[in-house]
């Protein structure tokens, strides 16, 4: 992951990976005989890192931020993290690398599936038409990929990515509003006691 983020695909070699891992080339090749086998294993690890990072971060949010805005903020943080940038580097490099392409052909779909499964756990019953949430998340995913590419270049020096994210959160809040506090229990009406005819001097039952 460090090599992909710092050196890119072209600068990542098994020799450099072994050096950073503090193992010999022989030990590295024993577990991962080729660079592509190593990359395939790293890809699985990175996908799991992304899922755990998102779920763990959401779990420690204060209750008032456990809403769709908080979820989008966290997703944006995940997209700017090292695992996401390493995956993005693989996806971009696979476009022109025939050996890497088969490993990464379904990479975007797998990342999207992680996001969708996590979203459904966090917001299990949105009152939306069938198929709306997957399509919406696909659009958010595509947008975040583009934003994160630009962020990797300028770190949002002009605030444009933050402005886009703010607008997206405003729209998302309209689609999936906060559940709000639970409704207050209804007041129970208790009728006054019925007067006792034998003791109430104002009660006349003589007809």
TrEMBL record:
Residues 13-32 bind DNA. Residues 178-195 have a biased composition (Pro residues). Residues 1-50 form the HTH tetR-type domain. It comes from the Bacteria. Keywords: DNA-binding, Transcription, Transcription regulation. Gene3D superfamilies: Tetracycline Repressor, domain 2 (1.10.357.10). One of its GO terms (molecular function) is DNA-binding transcription factor activity. Residues 177-207 are annotated as: Disordered. This is TetR/AcrR family transcriptional regulator.
């Amino acid at each position: 992951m460090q090599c992909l983020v710092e050196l890119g695909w072209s600068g990542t070699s098994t020799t450099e990976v072994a050096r950073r891992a503090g193992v010999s080339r022989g030990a590295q090749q024993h577990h991962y005989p080729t660079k592509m086998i190593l990359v395939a294993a790293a890809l699985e690890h990175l996908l799991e890192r992304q899922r755990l990072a998102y779920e763990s971060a959401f779990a420690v949010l204060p209750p008032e931020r456990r809403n769709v805005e908080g979820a989008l903020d966290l997703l944006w943080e995940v997209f700017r993290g090292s695992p996401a940038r390493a995956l993005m580097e693989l996806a971009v490099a696979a476009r022109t690398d025939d050996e890497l392409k088969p490993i990464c052909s379904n990479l975007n779909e797998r990342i999207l599936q992680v996001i969708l499964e996590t979203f459904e756990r966090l917001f299990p019953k949105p009152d939306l038409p069938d198929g709306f949430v997957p399509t919406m998340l696909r659009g958010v995913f595509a947008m975040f990929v583009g934003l994160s590419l630009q962020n990797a270049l300028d770190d949002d020096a002009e605030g444009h990515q933050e402005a886009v994210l703010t607008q997206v959160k405003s729209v998302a809040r309209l689609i999936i509003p906060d559940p709000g506090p639970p409704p207050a229990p209804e007041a129970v009406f208790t009728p006054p006691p019925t007067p006792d005819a034998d003791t109430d001097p104002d009660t006349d039952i003589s007809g």
